[in-house]
Specification:
Two copies of one chain form a homodimer. The first copy, chain A, is an alpha+beta fold and 140 residues long. Chain A has a domain of 78 residues: Orthogonal Bundle (Arc Repressor Mutant, subunit A), CATH 1.10.10. Helix content of chain A is 29%, strand content 30%. Chain A is built from four helices and seven strands, in the order H-H-E-H-H-E-E-E-E-E-E. A three-stranded antiparallel beta sheet of chain A has the order 1-3-2. In chain A, strands 5-4-7 form a three-stranded mixed beta sheet, with no helix packed on it. In chain A, strand 2 and strand 3 form a beta hairpin. In chain A, helix 1 packs across helix 2 and helix 3 packs across helix 4. The longest helix of chain A is centred in the middle third of the chain and has 13 residues. The termini of chain A are far apart. The interface between A and B is large, with 40 and 39 residues. Chain A binds a DNA duplex (30 and 30 nucleotides) through helix 2 and helix 4.
Chain lengths: 140, 140
DNA sequence: GCTTCATTTTAGAATTATTCTAAATTATGT
DNA sequence: ACATAATTTAGAATAATTCTAAAATGAAGC
C-alpha cells in the first residue's frame, strides 16, 4: 500500500497537523478520518456530526473544514456552482462526477495518465492537477 | 477577414443554435462571440454589456447565458466556490488556474494527452473531461 | 483547584451569487 | 393590426457561506 490512509486517534491526527484538538475538532476528525474516503458538503458533515451526540455549530463546521484543508487533511473539490465537496482522500486521484445524481466517485491516479503536460508559467509552481470526468445518463 | 472561430453575425449564430435572436440576446452574442476566447462571470458580462448602449437586466444575462450553455455556445467552468466562468471557447481544451491572481488561461487540448481513461460506468455516457492545472506563486 | 488570558465556538446577522415570480414588454403568425 | 406566445424585467426570495461580537473553553501558572 502506497499512500497510507488517515487512521489512528483523531486527536493524534490533529496534533500531527498542528491543530489543537478541541472537542468539536476531534468529533469532526473522528467522523471524517475513519479510513474510508468520503466526499461530503459542509451541510452533510454538519448533519452527520449532529447524529452523534456531539453538538457543533454550522459555523464551526465551516471553520474547521477550512482549517483541515489548510493543514492538508482535506481537499476541496469544485464540481458544480452550488456543491463544494470536502474530500478526505488527499492522495493523488481524480473524479467521476455523475450529473444525473450529483454523486462524486474517485478514480485512482494510475487509471489516468497525462502526457505532454504544458510547462508551468514562470514564477508559478504546479499546485495540483484536477481531472473531472463528467457523466450523464446514457441515451437509450 | 475577421476572426476564425465564431464567425458570422451574432444573429446568424443564434439562428443556427435555434435561439430566437432578440435584442438582448443579440447584444450578448455580439459581445461574447467576437472571435476571441473569453472567460467571464455573469456579473462581468452584465457590466460589459451595460457599457455598450444596450440595457439588459441581470436576470436576462443569467437566463441567456444558460440558454447559450444549453445550446452548446458556451461552457461553464467551475474553478472556485465563488467564481463561475462562462467560457466562449467551446472547442476541446483545458485550463490553467492561477490561484495567486484568480486568472484562468486556456490550454489547447493537444497540449495534454490523457491515456488510460477509465471506462464509463454502465448506464452513463461521458459528457466531458475537464482538466484544471492549479498554479501557485513559486516558492523561492 | 482556581485565575488569567488567548483561543475557539456560537447564534444569528450579513453577504453574495443566483434563481424565482408575476407583471410588463416584445415578437410572431394570421 | 390583433391575438397569442415568448421574453424581459425589477425586485423578492433562496441558499451557501462568511462575518461578528459575545460566551465558552483550554492551557499555563500559581
Amino acid at each position: 500500500m502506497k499512500a497510507k490512509k488517515q487512521h489512528g486517534h483523531p486527536e493524534a491526527i490533529l496534533q500531527a497537523a498542528g491543530i489543537r484538538p478541541t472537542r468539536q475538532r476531534t468529533a469532526l476528525a473522528a467522523l471524517l478520518f475513519d479510513g474510508c474516503d468520503k466526499h461530503m458538503t459542509a451541510e452533510q458533515i454538519h448533519a452527520a456530526v449532529r447524529k452523534t451526540k456531539a453538538r457543533v455549530a454550522l459555523a464551526t463546521v465551516y471553520n474547521t473544514l477550512h482549517q483541515f484543508t489548510a493543514a492538508g487533511l482535506l481537499h476541496e473539490v469544485m464540481i458544480d456552482s452550488n456543491r463544494v465537496y470536502f474530500d478526505t482522500n488527499i492522495g493523488n486521484h481524480h473524479h467521476f462526477f455523475d450529473e444525473a445524481t450529483g454523486e462524486l466517485h474517485d478514480i485512482p491516479a494510475d487509471n489516468i495518465h497525462i502526457a505532454r503536460l504544458p510547462k508551468t508559467p514562470p514564477g508559478r509552481k504546479l499546485d495540483r492537477v484536477d481531472v473531472i470526468i463528467r457523466l450523464r445518463a446514457a441515451a437509450r
